[in-house]
Amino acid sequence: MKKTIAALAIALACTATGADAKGCLKGAVVGGVAGHYAHHHAVLGAIAGCAVGHHLAAQKEQQQKAAAQKTPPPPAH
User: Fold this and answer.
1) pLDDT at position 27, please?
2) What is the pLDDT of residue 19?
3) Residues 11, 24: contact at Cβ < 8 Å?
């Protein structure tokens, strides 16, 4: 139980650290749960999940920006 609380505390710390913490909370929670069930490594799972979640969120944001630049503006009437 202490490790689960520690994992959640890390997840909250990830989101409170700055503006670019997108994906960290969700990734930390998923990683913490997965780590807990994989030989009781909830804290390591939360840390890894935070990093992966942040990376995936950054990739998604870049893809959305690229798609927005390719889309021509609608014709004015």
Assistant:
1) 83
2) 43
3) yes
Q: CA 32 to CA 48: how far, in whole Å?
A: 9
Written as one string, the DSSP assignment of the chain is: -HHHHHHHHHHHHHHHS-TT-TTHHHHHHHHHHHHHHTTS-HHHHHHHHHHHHHHHHHHHHHHHHHHHHHSPPPPP-
CA separation (Å) from 3 to 14, 32, 36, 63, 67?
A: 16, 9, 8, 35, 41
Does the pTM surpass 0.70? The reply is no
Measured CA to CA, the distance from residue 49 to residue 67 in angstroms comes to 27
